[in-house]
């Protein structure tokens, strides 16, 4: 039994490290996609001074700690966001494996969470959600429906419209109430999650986004006419629904003796 625990510890440790390394690549995507720089070729470089980084500068998390959060070549401060995203990559990899087991479904779940992480930070930086990333989620949604059958096609199709359609209609009534990228994101992920879990994801996004919006108003960092990126809150809600949606729904129903 002890050897079995050791074996699982090694496997999940490897998954964690692999996820952290992939998280390092996500940092590349977050920076390069909005800048329209190819992420398939070209060495990594310091955004401040443009100096090409060596392998020793690119060890996830460790390089940041060793360099004390500064570029080796120009001394410019490196955002704490870089190791944070690397650690989130590891956390998502581990969460996927623990939620779905060592299966292809875990791989898809990890891929979805990584894309959502990239979307969240690009939206924070640019107030835009790239269509290519939404298309990637749509492809994964179709793969999930075909291969895993956790939800029915009917539930998926309803999920496609259950949040995206009301958002679109609200945009027609109140101009720019939601971004087009937010609507597309809800459609693609609704197809993957099904209508029940998509409703849960939207509720989480509205609550967390509402709290953040209230904070901005109270601190007078924004007024009622200003917009803020809603993609990060949608991404957060979708990730929670992806991994714990059924648990949350069942817990909610049990509170009211409906389960």
TrEMBL record:
Gene3D superfamilies: 1.20.120.1220. Its EC number is 2.1.1.-, 3.4.23.43. Residues 111-213 form the Prepilin type IV endopeptidase peptidase domain. The keyword Transmembrane applies. The chain crosses the membrane at residues 6-31, 104-122, 134-163, 198-218, 230-255. This is Prepilin leader peptidase/N-methyltransferase. It is found in: Cell inner membrane; Cell membrane. Residues 17-99 form the Prepilin peptidase A24 N-terminal domain. It is a multi-pass membrane protein. It catalyses: Typically cleaves a -Gly-|-Phe- bond to release an N-terminal, basic peptide of 5-8 residues from type IV prepilin, and then N-methylates the new N-terminal amino group, the methyl donor being S-adenosyl-L-methionine. Its main location: membrane. It comes from the Bacteria. It holds the Pfam family Peptidase_A24. Keywords: Cell inner membrane, Cell membrane, Hydrolase, Membrane, Methyltransferase, Multifunctional enzyme, Protease, Transferase, Transmembrane, Transmembrane helix. Belongs to the peptidase A24 family. Plays an essential role in type IV pili and type II pseudopili formation by proteolytically removing the leader sequence from substrate proteins and subsequently monomethylating the alpha-amino group of the newly exposed N-terminal phenylalanine.
